[in-house]
Design brief:
This protein is mainly α. It contains 9 helices and 4 strands. The strands form 2 sheets. It has a two-stranded antiparallel ribbon with strand order 1-2. The chain crosses the membrane at residues 38-60, 80-97, 118-143, 186-207.
């Protein structure tokens, strides 16, 4: 038996027709350019911050030392070098990978192609790691820096700056190294903060891409389930019944219906045959049909001779108007195609 299946419009979704309200290529291109710009800006800022901290460490070690901490050297300026170098390598690898992928796919495909889950997770984890480590290291670098001790010089009445007193121990005129190293540390912290801000924006973009990818996967699974649903319903809606059991159920239902119809026809009349005194004589016979069973007898006459089946009531001609139940045997007729051949 043929069954109709309603096939969805999009049987297998692709990355191009996933959403009806898909953003325009201009918006996608702007987002791609924004991501590339953030990577390049963070690359330059991380390179500058690494250079500044690396330049401040030897000058600091040759003039100062730490009283507390794991090392007497400038370990506070060495802490940001780890996340900054990692950010530098990450941005360089990402830019090279994006440029290579864009050349292989072309500009149009590079804009419209969706991201894969593994690179998206790697981008999110890398940005989160850089954010956590760089924030802590910049706090330590700011705490152990020298620009916190900068003080203006105290001059005498003649306009000179005496350096043999404790008043000008942190003045520029008395300790120029303090200011030169402090400037390097301050610039390194500023560019490190710029790297942190760029990675915060990249982390938000990575989270958005992960959310978009999860929505695409969910819509794909829903469409695939919608495609396979009509087939499963058409195969599971009609239960399979053995032929012998189906035949026995049909025979039992037919016998039950026949017995109920016979009981309904054999039920005696409450009014009796005397109520219908008005009779009508059939043509060519002396059989009189009462008013009570005239409708049933008229239907039997319309069906024609030889097509009457079951029970019907007829009033006898000289029986005093009493109803008599007469059973006529059921006749089996040949098919219509061979009846008039």
């Amino acid at each position: 038996m043929l069954t109709k299946e309603r096939i969805p419009v999009a049987t297998y979704p692709s990355s191009y027709d996933m959403f009806e309200e898909r953003p325009r290529p201009g918006t996608r291109m702007f987002r791609k350019h924004l991501t590339s710009t953030l990577h390049m800006a963070s690359l330059v800022a991380s390179l500058l911050a690494t250079s500044l901290f690396a330049a401040a460490i030897p000058h600091w070690n040759s003039n100062f030392f730490h009283n507390t901490g794991p090392n007497r050297g400038d370990w506070t300026d060495g802490m940001p070098l780890g996340p900054l170098v990692f950010a530098l390598v990450y941005h360089a690898a990402t830019l090279v990978h994006n440029r290579t992928t864009r050349r292989q796919r072309g500009p149009a495909e590079a804009v419209t192609a969706g991201g894969r889950p593994l690179p998206l997770i790697l981008h999110a984890l890398s940005s989160a790691l850089i954010l956590a480590t760089l924030f802590a290291s910049l706090i330590l670098a700011a705490y152990g820096s020298l620009f916190r001790f900068w003080r203006p010089a105290t001059r005498t009445q003649s306009g000179g700056v005496p350096c043999d007193t404790m008043l000008n121990v942190f003045a520029r005129e008395c300790q120029p190294v303090l200011y030169s190293v402090g400037r390097l540390q301050l610039a390194g912290i500023v560019f490190g903060a710029a790297v942190w801000l760029c990675h915060f924006a990249l982390f938000l973009i990575a989270l958005r891409n992960l959310r978009r990818h999860s929505i695409i996967r969910r819509v794909q699974s829903e469409k695939l389930a919608q495609f396979s649903l009509p087939r499963s319903l058409s195969s599971d809606s009609a239960p399979t019944v053995p032929p012998g059991r189906a035949r026995s159920n049909t025979t039992r239902a037919m016998s039950l219906g026949r017995s109920l119809s016979m009981k309904a026809r054999q039920k005696p009349s409450h009014h009796g045959g005397r109520r219908g005194e008005r009779t009508r004589t059939g043509s060519g016979s002396g059989t009189a049909v009462t008013d009570g069973n005239w409708h049933h007898h008229h239907q039997q006459q319309q069906q024609g001779p030889g097509r009457t089946q079951g029970w019907y009531d007829v009033a006898g001609g000289g029986g005093g108007g009493s109803d008599v139940d007469i059973q006529r045997p059921t006749q089996t007729l040949p098919p219509v195609s061979s009846r008039y051949s």
